[in-house]
From TrEMBL:
<keyword id="KW-0732">Signal</keyword>
<feature type="signal peptide">
    <location>
        <begin position="1"/>
        <end position="18"/>
    </location>
</feature>
<dbReference type="InterPro" id="IPR025673">
    <property type="entry name" value="PCYCGC"/>
</dbReference>
<dbReference type="Pfam" id="PF13798">
    <property type="entry name" value="PCYCGC"/>
</dbReference>
<protein>
    <recommendedName>
        <fullName>Lipoprotein</fullName>
    </recommendedName>
</protein>
């Protein structure tokens, strides 16, 4: 329960500060178009598992680290949620999970992707989806809400199969 309360608090702070333009998570990321130009420079880094964050996250805000860890723990959910930042075309992502995790190895190791560190859209979609899932919404409901929320003014969604 403490983790859920912390996550809700972080998500609320993240959304409020992102809307006011003062979030440390999204500051200095530039316009969405410049994000698309840099996706080919995404860094992948392997760690022994979800409990070990990659080096590229160590100097990032704690709220970003928490969203990354939560994303990795919610693979089934986020593999069913599209991303609307343009990464489907620019980075060949298939869903929102790909913005955070490049590969899950049989050994339990995880190959992280730094794409989400450069994109507020990726972070917002993951955080909102996970929060809604923790509150009991179905994957189908969450998918429908995300599709509706990002249908106008954003890039084409990743080619995520329908739920």
């Amino acid at each position: 329960m403490k983790v859920k309360i912390l996550f809700i608090s972080i998500l609320s702070t993240f959304i409020i500060s992102a809307c006011s333009g003062q979030s440390k998570v999204v500051e200095n990321m530039g316009e969405h178009a410049s994000h698309q130009e840099h996706t080919s420079y995404d860094i992948q880094e392997e760690t022994k598992g979800i409990s070990e964050i990659p080096h590229f996250l160590k100097d990032k805000p704690e709220d970003m680290q928490i969203i990354y860890t939560a994303a990795a723990k919610n693979k089934e959910l986020l593999e069913n949620i599209p991303c609307y930042c343009g990464c489907g075309e620019s980075a060949n992502h298939k869903n929102n999970y790909d913005c955070f995790v490049f590969e899950n190895k049989v050994s339990g190791a995880i190959v992280w992707d730094d794409h989400g560190t450069k994109c507020g859209v990726c972070l917002e979609i993951a955080a909102q989806s996970i929060l809604d899932y923790q509150e009991g919404k179905s994957i189908k409901e969450i998918r429908s809400e995300i599709d509706e929320m990002y249908k106008d003014g954003y890039a084409r969604p990743t080619p995520t199969p329908e739920v």
